[in-house]
Automatic annotation (TrEMBL):
Segments forming domain ABC transporter: 5-240, 253-495
Topological category with respect to the lipid bilayer: Peripheral membrane protein
Name assigned to this protein: ABC-type sugar transport system ATPase component
Keywords associated with the record: ATP-binding, Cell inner membrane, Cell membrane, Membrane, Nucleotide-binding, Repeat, Sugar transport, Translocase, Transport
Subcellular location: Cell membrane
Coiled coil spans: none
GO cellular component: plasma membrane
CDD domains referenced in this protein's UniProt entry, alphabetically: ABC_Carb_Monos_I, ABC_Carb_Monos_II
Family annotation (InterPro entries): AAA+_ATPase (IPR003593), ABC_carbohydrate_import_ATPase (IPR050107), ABC_transporter-like_ATP-bd (IPR003439), ABC_transporter-like_CS (IPR017871), P-loop_NTPase (IPR027417)
């Protein structure tokens, strides 16, 4: 039976924080229902209630008009609901088959029938068009493949309602396409799908209807998403007009400051050459695996340099030493910010200020505290970081707000000459993206070289003065802003 999902006045509070305030909307069978909203708007909390992880403080959830109360994830699964969370839930040491059928293995004469289990999984994988070895261990699979395993598991548990929380945030271009195909297939078989994303293009191509959240409240449900202008969606999400989110301003470029010559690490067949002028914003585009992050880590000294040189204002930057790169004025804000940068037990303010502290050493303790508080408040306000105050422990913030805090740490650095941002807006809402693009421009206007690595093509085209495209660990083309169309960049990124 196809399922029809209703949220009726659902509320949830955490100490001092209202995450959801009386949210009501319906999601219909055979549709993809998008959830949109700024970071911290309450989207993930709603999915955690749907998946039985949290109990609501008030309101009801109804499946096929029957009220449901879940005390655990197992209760939700029994009611035909599966939630694919941002942090995937699997056992890395077990195989695809074992993960999918965990606790539900077919038995024969009282013994587990492994061959039958394998056949069942293989059949279901092929039905949903996923090519995976049922005997592969999850630890050997890519994130995209692990996600496919979770989807297959949901289907095999007979889930009729499947919810996705930012499923493409760690997927490549081609992997995302596979996921979209799967979601469309599930829609065509009558499943009810809930889909959270900050990528508007993706939501438009996938969703039939959508609900917009702001500050824990439902703002509106649009029954036909395709008919809603982009400006309206953005306005409803951020509560203000935002006509040009990139806000690109041309600026006079300076002399060449950063020169990279024949830079080669252990995975690069040749070496990379490029240069960046003062005040220039260079966008690096490429498919995941093209070698962009590796090149940046090499430039920053985090990976071993086998050949080549990096010159900043004509002075060689020592190899293999991030402290030496920082000393020279090169900063890298890494892609996996949360893993590398988060101090989970520390406050928002401490997380923002930790890197700047070395410049503030000579300032007296009280002055430093004031300066740090002011700096934290500036970024909380500017990036619209949703937190009760600057002293809140970062671990209590929503995923996107944690990203904003860590990004603020890098943007707060005032002494840099080269700022490298790897996927700076991943998981970040559209209002804060706009602020991040403004800060990037301001940093460039001060004469700094800015390098932005991004998998979001509209972002690269929107903010960069020049686009460098990478393919197979090499720079496959360089396009000026005027020549950098979507087709031109994709041709360079994809060509055989
Ligand atoms: N366990 C918790 N303790 C305290 N506050 C929490 C907890 N979980 C969520 N919150 C708060 O509830 C609010 C809603 O968070 P939620 O994760 O639902 O937002 P979201 O819309 O999914 O954001 P994002 O787009 O960043 O993922 C935020 O202010 C968040 O800080």
């Amino acid at each position: 039976m196809t399922a029809y999902l209703q949220f009726d006045q659902v509320s949830k509070h955490f100490s001092g924080v209202r995450a959801l305030a009386g949210v009501s909307f319906d999601a219909h069978a055979g549709t993809v229902h998008g959830l949109l909203g700024e970071n911290g708007a309450g989207k993930s909390t709603l999915l955690k209630i749907l998946g039985g992880q949290y109990r609501p403080d008030g309101g009801r959830l109804l499946v096929n008009s029957v009220p449901c109360q879940f005390n655990s994830a197992a209760d939700a699964i029994r009611a035909g609901i599966a939630v694919i969370h941002q942090e995937l839930q699997y056992v890395p040491e077990l195989t695809v088959t074992e993960n999918i059928l965990m606790g539900r293995f077919p038995a024969r004469f009282g013994l587990i029938d492994r061959n039958k289990a394998r056949r069942m999984v293989l059949q279901r994988l092929s039905e949903i068009g996923v090519d995976l070895d049922p005997d592969a261990r999850l630890s050997h699979l890519s994130i995209a493949q692990r996600q496919m395993v979770e989807i297959c598991k949901a289907v095999m548990q007979n889930a009729q309602i499947i919810a996705f929380d930012e499923p493409t945030s760690s997927l490549s271009y081609t992997e995302s396409e596979i996921l979209f195909r799967l979601v469309r297939e599930l829609r065509s078989t009558g499943h009810t799908l809930i889909y959270i994303s900050h990528r508007l293009e993706e939501l438009y191509s996938l969703c039939d209807a959508c609900t917009i959240f702001r500050d824990g409240r439902k703002i509106v449900t649009h029954p036909v998403m395709a008919q809603v202008p982009r400006e309206t969606l953005i306005h409803d999400m951020v509560g203000r007009e935002l006509s040009d989110i990139y806000g690109y301003r041309p600026r006079p470029l300076g002399a060449q400051r950063l020169q990279v010559r024949g830079l080669r690490g252990k995975n690069d067949p040749t070496g990379c050459n490029f240069s960046v002028r003062g005040a220039e914003i260079v966008g690096f585009f490429g498919l995941v695996g093209a070698g962009r992050s590796e090149l940046m880590r090499l430039l920053y000294g985090a990976d071993r340099r086998l050949a080549g040189s990096v010159l900043l204002d004509g002075v060689p930057v020592p190899a293999n030493s991030p402290p030496a790169a920082i000393e020279a004025g090169i900063l890298l804000c890494p892609e996996d910010r949360k893993e590398q940068g988060i101090l989970a037990q520390a406050s928002v303010a401490e997380n923002i200020n930790i890197s700047c502290r070395r410049h503030d050493l000579r300032v007296g303790f009280f002055l430093r505290r004031n300066k740090e508080a002011a700096r934290a408040d500036f970024f909380i306000d500017r990036l619209r970081i949703k937190t009760p105050n600057r002293d809140q422990e970062i671990r209590f913030l929503s995923g996107g707000n944690q990203q904003k805090v860590i990004l603020a740490r890098w943007l707060a650095e005032s002494t840099m000459k080269v700022l490298i941002l790897d996927e700076p807006t991943r998981g970040i809402d559209v209002g804060a993206k706009n602020e991040i693009y403004r800060i990037i421009q301001e940093v460039a206007e001060q004469g700094c070289c800015v390098i932005v690595v991004s998998s979001e093509l509209p972002e690269v085209l929107g903010i960069a003065d020049r686009v460098l495209v990478m393919r197979n660990k090499e720079i496959s083309g360089v396009l000026d802003r005027s020549e950098a169309t979507e087709t031109a960049v994709l041709n360079l990124a994809l060509a055989a």
